[in-house]
Amino acid sequence: MFSLVSMSAFSIINMPSQKGKVAIVTGGNAGIGYETVKGLLAKESHVIMASRNPDKANEAKNALLSEIPRSSLEFIQLDLAKKSSIEAFVSEFESKHDRLDLLINNAGIMMPPYGETDFGYERQWGVNYLAHFYLTGLLFPILKKTEEARIVTLSSLAHQNGKIYFDDVNRKDNYDRNEAYRQSKVACLIFAYELNRRLDQNGMSQKSLGAHPGVAITNLLDDGPWYIKALAPFFKWMLHSVEDAAKPTLMAALDPALTGGEYIGPTGKRGMKGEPGKVDSNDLSKDPDVGDRLWKLSEQQIDFKFEVSPT
Q1: What domains, with CATH codes, occur in the chain?
Q2: Per-residue model confidence as pLDDT tens digits over 196-226
Q3: Catalytic residue selected from 121, 129, 181, 263
Q4: What is the average per-residue pLDDT within 221-235?
Q5: What angle do CA 242, 243, 248 make, to 5 degrees?
Q6: Other beta carbons less than 10 A from residue 260's beta carbon
Q7: CA-CA distance, 238 to 157, in Å (whole number)?
Q8: What SS3 string covers 101-169?
Q9: Is 165 considered catalytic here?
Q10: Cα torsion for 311, 186, 246, 88, to the nearest 10°?
Q11: Which run of H or of E encompasses 276?
């Protein structure tokens, strides 16, 4: 059940300048990611658009540079379904930059037919969650060198009914694309909370937050069932614009009043649209024992030790 914690008047205009700061937005070439990149550019961030398709990314880059001249925007290819691509992205980023102020784990897929990443996991689990866990872990050495760095991980209203199938996250023999999407999105939120817990426990200045966009028609529907795409236009009155859907992410990324561990989303009816603010999430997402169990499972699945410590 959606629950509002607090409402906040958010305006990108009132957010502090990000001049001199470096940000990464996964899936930044389209939809909510594109609007997120635009907002960060407006605040003078240097933004790395991390996207799979170079042609679409360069098209988006040119459009943004035309709209916001003299902005600082870079493209580095990233395919979250391929472990080697994640590693190559981090290597290229580190060869060019010595700080990372903001990592926005935005990219995702929604309710495709069953498929697996090259590291052996159901695509929604692998792309939406596990790849971002790995990406954040690989980037953590540079994040922890950057004072007050933030990690924002995108979840969804769908997390409310999400469950982690710890013994079989793939669910190949019982695949339900909706169930798999919910699982991936509650995992994203559990990770956001658990990362912030570990940062706090180690007395670190970095912050981890979750965000969700509410409901908007975006490119995320491209892989979804035909009936959702067919019906979506008839429910526009219940939805908000892609520009508004990006506001919770931008608030989580930029609002200096946030201290870490918050979940930001639309504050309107049922969390579907409205001004961004702090919102509540389900009990599973906030359970520290579940967070620790998911962290250990993720390290095992990706064969990577993600240590959160200041040294």
Answers
A1: 4-8+16-302 (3.40.50.720)
A2: 999 999 999 999 999 999 988 655 555 555 4
A3: 181
A4: 51
A5: 95
A6: 20
A7: 14
A8: CEEEECCCCCCCCCCECCCCCEHHHHHHHHHHHHHHHHHHHHHCCCCCCEEEEECCHHHHHCCCCCCCC
A9: no
A10: 50
A11: strand 276-279
